[in-house]
Amino acid sequence: DGQDGSHEPPEIPESTVEKFVILVEEEIAKYETGEEKWPSCDDELSLLDAIDRVSKLTSAVAKFSSELKYNEAMNHSGSVLHHAMCFLEDEFHSLLQDSRTKQEAASSSSRTKQLPSLIYRFHEPERSVSPSSESSPCESSQAYIPENTERLHRIADAMISAGYVTECCQVFSIARRNAFEAGLPSLGFEKVGIEDVIKMAWENLESEIATWVKAFRHTITASFTAERELCEAVFASHRAISDRLFLGFANGAIVQLLTFAEAVTMTKRSAEKLFKVLDVYEAMRDVLPTVEALLPDDGEQDEPSVFADPKTEISSLRYRLGEAAVAIFCDLESSIKADNSKTPVPGGAVHPLTRYVMNYLKYACEYKSTLEQVFKEHKHAEKPSSFDEDRENSQTSGGGDGDRNSNSSGNDNYNPFAAQLIEVMDLLHSNLESKSKLYKDLALSNIFLMNNGRYIAKKVKGSPEIHQLLGETWYRKRSSDLRQYHKNYQRETWSKLLACLRDDGLQVRGSVAKPVLKERFKSFNAMFDEIHKAQSSWVVSDEQLQSELRVSVSAVVVPAYRSFLGRFSQYLDPGRQTEKYIKFGPEDLENLIDELFDGTPSSSIASRRRT
Fold first, then answer.
1. Which domains does the chain have, with CATH numbers?
2. Which of 163, 246, 247, 327 lies 20 to 30 Å from 290 when distance is taken between CA atoms?
3. Three-state DSSP class for 539?
């Protein structure tokens, strides 16, 4: 510039400019054609400085392009600058690609060593857990040695300074996206289309969900942190560009992974899918704080973003997964109502429906805090009258951020999941009561109720989560029901037998009426034989309940029989008459009672004696 403020063309010797530009061009060509593709450290700085000078020279003379001599200088320097940028872009790409190649090799190696299991048994659902701290090819910045990261930084600075921001960012974005996709298989996850997920057999989809959860957690907690560090290191001088590139990477990675989760929500709902749906929900919930910490809010960004907010995407999908989980769990009521078989279970054993429901609830309640959370978010029904307000230890919610959600009942202690669980248990109880009426023998009906009631009680007692949700009041009520079933069984079976051992009607005018006594023994023998034959085939699989029943029967029958025998056996003539009417000793009764409830059909006692 002139001293008078006028803008005069600078005086630059043409030969000097020409020599300098040619020198730079030759230097670049040397590395393009030679064995050494990039200069050593000192030479690198010198070359980058020379390229920067060409950039500034081109920019300076561009202002005076109307002057012929400057136009020629600008064209030549511009051509060399473009050549230099292509050279830097190639090196930039090569450095980024070098890491990707290593990732693909590691990914391939990992796939040969670790194959995901394809089989998950319903009664042993596998909880998906957070990834370990083990290194993975997906951890982006760790794939580069510090020297290469620094070189990437210097090249990025040179390209951005020369006005090649778009080219630099494009190469970086594509390379990092490809590196991310190459690393996913190392975690067992392969990209699957939505249609393929929807059509996939559940056994296979279970496995895919487990590996997806692992990949998703790892991507958010490990890969994103590493990628952010890489962006900040390479574009250390350009924070806005660093933020934009990371946001683009994060958005692309999340969208790619959420496509699978989206497909899971579109599959047909069924009871066995609850646990994996909750695994996906928990993954979404658990990573959201990390995503919020890594990604700025819209108001915090230096410039508007063209990308959808990943936080919104995750929150939206998490909401739908929670909605699906609630619907699936509530469908358990429909399953119970639909089980209206008119065929009683042989021997009064535990009904398959009871086993299914209680095992299902046991595994569902391993997700207790999560289910409490989703029910508070989605189940807004009024508090049912069956919900026991006095239940102790059943009002506590472990639902994480779900605790912040209120519910329409207006009761802060109201637990919608506990209320739903009680509804399911009450419905199961009513269903079993109805099924017990299918038995013509009232004693067997009570054995059926005892078997199922004891099975339920043991499952509840064995699961702290279920016990806490149902409450002690509910448990005591069901225990009381069990005792009543026991009393009903005793009355229906053994009260009639004990009537044979009454003194009433045995004495006439002060002496024992032998015909009546003989008839009493005959009735007792026949009745006991019939009971033994029938109830030996009845099933009580719970050893403790089986023992309790046998002991209680012996405690009632054997002493009464021993006393009756002691008082009246003397009135029968010794020999054949005694053998004819007295078929059992007290010890015989004890042994025969110990054969009850084995589930093994027994022949009559009389026929066994003959053999």
1. 88-330 (no CATH), 339-488 (no CATH), 501-610 (1.20.1280.170)
2. 327
3. strand
CB burial of residue 259 (10 Å; 0-12, 13-18, 19+) = middle
The SS3 call for residue 220 is helix
Asked if 31 and 39 touch (Cβ cutoff 8 Å), the reply is yes
Question: Distance between CA atoms of 227 and 561, rounded to whole angstroms?
Answer: 85
Give me the amino acid identity at 298. Answer: D
453, 481 Cβ separation under 8 angstroms: yes
Count of Cβ atoms closer than 10 Å to residue 135 Cβ: 11
Distance CA 488, CA 482 (A): 10
Which residues have a Cβ under 8 Å from the Cβ of 181 and sit 6 or more positions away?
Answer: 191, 256
Chain-centre distance of CA 61, in angstroms?
65
What digits encode the pLDDT tens for the residues 130-161? 444 444 444 544 567 888 899 899 999 989 98
Element (H or E) spanning 507, and its range?
strand 507-508
In angstroms, rounded to a whole number, what is the distance separating the alpha carbons of residues 497 and 454? Answer: 26
> Over the stretch 241-290, which tens digit does the pLDDT of each residue have?
999 999 999 989 998 899 999 999 999 999 999 999 999 999 999 999 99
Residues paired with 539 in a beta bridge: 598
CA distance 244 to 304: 10
Q: 168, 89 in Cβ contact below 8 A?
A: yes
> In the structure encoding, which two tokens stand for residue 383, read together?
């508090």
Q: Which two three-digit tokens encode residue 497?
A: 């037998």
Instruction: Give pLDDT tens digits for 379-394.
Output: 764 455 555 444 444 4
Q: Are 514 and 425 in contact (CB under 8 A)?
A: no
What's the distance, CA 88 to chain centroid? 47
d(CA 120, CA 264): 17
pLDDT, tens digit, for every residue of 159-213?
A: 998 889 999 999 999 999 999 998 889 888 888 899 999 999 999 999 999 999 9
Instruction: Provide Rg for the chain, Cα atoms.
Output: 41
Compute, in degrees rounded to 10, the torsion defined by CA atoms 256, 261, 263, 266: -150
